Amino acid sequence: MASPLIVAVVVLVVAYLVSLRNRHKYPPGPKGLPVLGVAKEHPKTEFWKTYAEWGRKYGNIGFISFHVLGRRMVVINSAAVAEDLLGKRSLIYSDRPFPPMAGQLMKREKSMFYISYNERFKTYRKFMHSSFNPNASQLHWPILQKQARIMVANISKTPQNLVEHLRRNAAATTMKIAYGYTIDKDRDHFVALAEEGMRVGSLAGAPGKWLVDSIPALKYLPDWFPGAGFKRQAKAWSDQLYTQSLEPHDWVKAQMAAGTAEPSFTSRLLESRDPHVSEAEHDDLVLWTGGAIYAAGADTTVSSVKTFYFLMMLHPDVQKRAQAEVDSIVAKEGRLPTIQDRPSMPYLDAVLQEVLRWAPPSPIGVFHCTSQTMNTTATSSPQRRPSSRTSGR
């Protein structure tokens, strides 16, 4: 029984000794305890609020740093700093950390959310830009408008089921765009797979939840070793997440073979293979890119629309003014508004922008890491240092 404890102690000591090497002058932040860092103070939920509070406490200079069990993190708390580092110097800050649990053990090295800044990442970005740049996005407008009308009709019938209607709308829209797939029932198989995948991805990537993320050497423990249950969990989740992307992808291929496929992100890419890329490699690239659309779009959309409803209930004067603007454009014609009407509705557009500013659906953004040593305003951070941007109220 003593062996696992001895191994754990040795690993902790090694992790601490490694953390002592190559000390850099980091941005200010809570110091925490040796080895543990701020593990006790780090919140389990709504961490962005704590990050914003720490930012104000430690100089309000645009970023803070801290470590949890030896893992150093830099959090950007300023739009100006985020634009400078992640925008103007994106070549340095476009890499992604590859966490042991959600990345390595779950074999997610090809995932758009964890992939390094390499040629495959550039292909993903090219695929996404080809379908979601401002001009190409107009191809999706009919889908957005049709699903919006279905959602409004459903809400008018059963307003008590508002959140369920919002979730169905987001799922139906993303599945149609990504795969040309139509959701025709409340509990759809592909949607159930995707929603479970979202839950799994959130659990696997939760900051501070998995000891192996702070002590990567634990990933080398045998699966049968006491306390190594996280490895067995990672294997099960890995298979589950891959199935989530594979099944709808294969469904599109079957529809294409039968000549019944509707135009979609996946079908268009499968039909436009670069002759210098093998069919198998191209298929794999499309599979992983398409699988990211639901994860990136469904929950964020639901979150933003829920916030909109909440704020309209809190501010009926704003709701009344926005409704009057909409009515002034479409009421005389007896129709519902369309996306083409948006330039004629500056007040409503400002309301939507404020919704996204006040409660961004992804308040800590996507984790990045540096591809070379960063230096900014008398501080430095070594290569591969994880960083994140945050928004707090």
UniProtKB/TrEMBL annotation:
SUPFAM superfamilies: Cytochrome P450. It comes from Agrocybe chaxingu. Its cofactor is heme. The keyword Metal-binding applies. InterPro entries: Cyt_P450, Cyt_P450_E_grp-I, Cyt_P450_sf, Cytochrome_P450_fung. Residues 376-393 have a biased composition (Low complexity). Belongs to the cytochrome P450 family. Pathway: Secondary metabolite biosynthesis. PANTHER family: P450, PUTATIVE (EUROFUNG)-RELATED (PTHR46300:SF7), P450, PUTATIVE (EUROFUNG)-RELATED-RELATED (PTHR46300). This is Cytochrome P450. Residues 372-393 are annotated as: Disordered. GO terms for molecular function: heme binding; iron ion binding; monooxygenase activity; oxidoreductase activity, acting on paired donors, with incorporation or reduction of molecular oxygen. Keywords: Heme, Iron, Metal-binding, Monooxygenase, Oxidoreductase. Pfam families: p450.
